[in-house]
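Chain A, query sequence.
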Amino acid sequence: MKKAADLAIGIAVISTVVGIISRFMMKPIVGIFASAFLEFSGVCLLLAIALSLREK
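Chain A, predicted structure.
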């Protein structure tokens, strides 16, 4: 479960960076708006928290 939580955190970081870049450029990246990237990163972080709690 630790690897899955780390993977979710990594995906969240990448999604956050892409969302911030999209917000600064004021253009959607690959047709996806910045808010979608940022909300997806929030979901990934919640998944990482849930997986971390599950292993304890």
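The chain has two helices and no strands. The chain has a mean pLDDT of 95.
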